[in-house]
Every structure is written in C-alpha cells, then in structure tokens.
Amino acid sequence: MGKRRKKDIYNGPNLTDQYDFIEDQQFEIKIKEYHQNGVGIGYIKGVPVWIFNSIIGETVLVKIKKIFPEKLIAEIISFNISSKKRIKPICKFYGDCTGCQWQHISYDEQLKLKKSNIVKLLRNFNLIDVGFVMDTLPSKNNFNYRNHARFTVRKDFDKEKLGFINFLDRKWISIDECKIMNHTINEKMKIISTDLRGLTQTSIRASDETKSFLIQPKLNTDTIETGQKYYEEKILKNIYKVASPSFFQVNPKQIEE
C-alpha cells in the first residue's frame, strides 16, 4: 500500500487563544463560504468555524467540538434558516463519517459548486482564462460507483472492524457498508470483516463490470483470495490492469463520458 500524504501543519498566528472559547459552547452563526474540502464556514469574532452538514446562506445554532489555533470545529444543533437546496442524506453514517461532504446538498447544486471550486483555484494561481471552464459533467450514478476503498482497521468491542477516520475530529467510525463504493467492494467488505487480525489498514479495489478485485495487504485467511498485485477494470472495450499502488480514476463510468 502507498504512503499517505503528510498532514498540513499550521504555523500561523493563534486566532482562538485571545478568546474564551470552550468546548460545547453554543452560538448562532451564518454560513458564508465553503472550504476547498467542502465543509461550510462561518465566522465568530473573526475566527473561522468549520461546520459539517451546512450550506451557504443557512443560519444555524452550533456547539464547539474542537478548538484549534486557526479555527473552531462545530456541529449543528438546530437550523434557524435552512436552505432550499438541502436534501436528506441516504447514508446512515453521514456526519459521523466525513468521506462524503455534500450528501445533504442537491446534486444540481453540487455540480455548480464543483465548477465554482475549479474557477476559484484557477483564479488564485492565475493559470488560465476561467471563461474556458465548462459546466461539470453529471454522473449517471451518484452512488455505488467508486472502485477503490481504503479502510482504517481498529478494535471495537475486542474485535477488529473496518472503518474511516473523521477528518474533522479525528475519531474513528466503524462501518459495514459504504454508499459510494461499488457493489463488489461492499460484498468483499463483508467477507473480510472476520479476518482483520493484526491490520491497521486495508485496501480494496474492484470492478463491478469485470468482477475482478484486489485486497491489500495479504490477509491470513482461506475465505477469500487476497494479496493480488492488480485487478482488471473495463473502460469502453478496453481492459486495464490496475496495480495496487497506482492511480486510476475512481468512477469508471464517468471516464467513458
């Protein structure tokens, strides 16, 4: 398995130390913008507050979960003004798991936000004329499309389980399915869930089209084949051998568009 990217370390001024912020403190706040990671941001006393499950324009009552030198992490208690673009997420882990940031936003609005993010980045770096940026091409499948999953394995009630790390509070959450992973990955998750002893991470790459898959690292089990060096992915009429550490587009049907 490949190396993970090192976390960014903040070396700027301490924005929160001058105020008496405490965890569980509550306040009302309006969502002003999105961070590039998709999380909504409001401001209290000039300090940015990251609020998952929020939409620009909403006014929400929140409580502080984490205090950092450069920002606050808060969670929503109630909505005072809710956006018309809000929808109900289909994932039972949404919010505890932060792998998907916009399941609470209508898909049409998500497409606009993705284009807006690209335009903003290009303007920041003055790379090209942003007028050439086309509208985001919608995907035919909003769920069960992803061909690559990387899980963190931890003990839960004395048994190793698959899960993800919440990138806001760094808490681990156990999951038994993932709505954006393809059906083959979800099937393999259930099979290997009883054979995770000694692991800290595991990766599954699989194709719904070819039914080919790989699981890394090799597990100490005879229940299912693991340790494969590659799996096969079909794009249009072509078959690609995708190695475990290599990059490949995670939405194969979107490539065909």
From TrEMBL:
Keyword S-adenosyl-L-methionine part of the UniProt annotation: yes
Protein name: TRAM domain-containing protein
Xref: Gene3D superfamilies: 2.40.50.1070, Nucleic acid-binding proteins, Vaccinia Virus protein VP39
Coiled-coil ranges per UniProt: none
GO molecular function: rRNA (uridine-C5-)-methyltransferase activity
SUPFAM superfamilies referenced in this protein's UniProt entry, alphabetically: Nucleic acid-binding proteins, S-adenosyl-L-methionine-dependent methyltransferases
The entry's keywords: Methyltransferase, S-adenosyl-L-methionine, Transferase
Keyword S-adenosyl-L-methionine on entry: yes
Alphabetized InterPro entries for the sequence: NA-bd_OB-fold, SAM-dependent_MTases_sf, TRAM_dom, U5_MeTrfase_fam
Gene Ontology BP, a term: rRNA base methylation
UniProt domain TRAM: residue ranges: 20-78
